[in-house]
Each structure stands twice: as C-alpha cells, then as structure tokens.
Amino acid sequence: PIWELWNEPNLAHYWGAPPDRDAYAKLAIATATALRNAGAREILSGGTSGIDVNWIYDLRTRGVFDLVTGCAVHSYKPPAQALNEYIQAISLLPPGVKIHTTESCVDTSRGQSAFFQDMWYVHRQLSLPVLIWCEFRDGTAGTTPPYTDPLGLVTADYSLKDVYYTAKALVRNG
Q1: Per DSSP, what are the bridge partners of residue 7?
Q2: pLDDT for residue 108 is more than 90
Q3: Given pLDDT bands bounded at 50, 70 and 90, which one contains residue 142?
Q4: Angle, nearest 10°, between helix axes 162-173 and 112-125?
C-alpha cells in the first residue's frame, strides 16, 4: 500500500484550522515513524493543494522528507504552467524523494484529453512516478453537493469519454 499523510494540509478547510507547518510536520514525522516501524515502504507527505513550494520547503527544513519516501501534490493548473512549479519542488527534495501527483484533472469543458496528455508528458519528462486522475466517473466530485462536475474518465452512466481513450493509449504506449 501507499500511505498519504493527510489531504491538503496546507488548506484550512482540510486541516481544520489555519494551516500549521510545525503541527503538520510533527504529525507527519510521528505517523511516518509508526508506519515505517510497522513495515510500510511507500509513505507520502500529505498531498498539497497545488504545488506549494513554500510548504514543501518548510517540510524539508522540519525533517519530514527524512522519513517519508515521496512528496504528494495535487495539481489542477494547465501542465505548461505547472511545469516550473514541479521543477522548483523537485529541487527542494532530498535525493530519492520524488514528487507524486495524487490528484489532477479538469472538467470536460476545459479540454480533458489535452490536459491529460500534456500532464502525462510532463510526468514522463521529469521522471515523476505517479499521476492519479481525480475522478473515475462524472458526478462523484465537485466543490459542493450535488457533485455534478464532469471530472471523470467516464460519464455518470459509465459511457467512455475521450479522455478515457487518451489515457488508455498513453498508458499502453508508455
């Protein structure tokens, strides 16, 4: 299994209070230590909202990346805009600790297939090991209920979308 230590701890909405780098670092270090002692091999820092290089830098200086094996980020920016942030984040990490994109997607109206393809190539270019699309099926996510945002690889009735075929072709061809 892969363990991701929190969801977007750099946002008050998910942290439950104003984000606190010191408190998160203590939690991440304690949790990573316990997981390692239990035999876990893949432990990622909490996926940040965006590629938050200031947050990543602060976690590095607090020792989080001495214990976790990867740095999780959630990137929803167009890949060409995110590229420089990925490069900055990579430069902040110790050797052997890689960036893992554990959430990324856009809705159908914003060109999902092109976004997926461009993000795929950014990940290949930078040797990033993980790119997880945020939703499999339309209608299961969004900013507020009833969660009708068309973010999935398939429609609400499971019909395959163009982005599904793009993903399938890219994965098949490496």
Answers
A1: 47
A2: no
A3: low
A4: 20
Coil, strand or helix: which one is 157? Answer: coil
8 Å CB contact between 35 and 3? yes
Distance CA 151, CA 110 (A): 10
Amino acid (one-letter) located at 8 = E
Distance from the first to the final alpha carbon of the chain: 23
117-135 per-position pLDDT tens digit: 999 999 999 999 999 999 9
- Which residue type sits at 142? G
> 173 by DSSP, 3-state: which?
helix
CA distance 161 to 43: 32
Question: 78-87, 93-102, 107-116: which has the minimum mean pLDDT?
Answer: 107-116
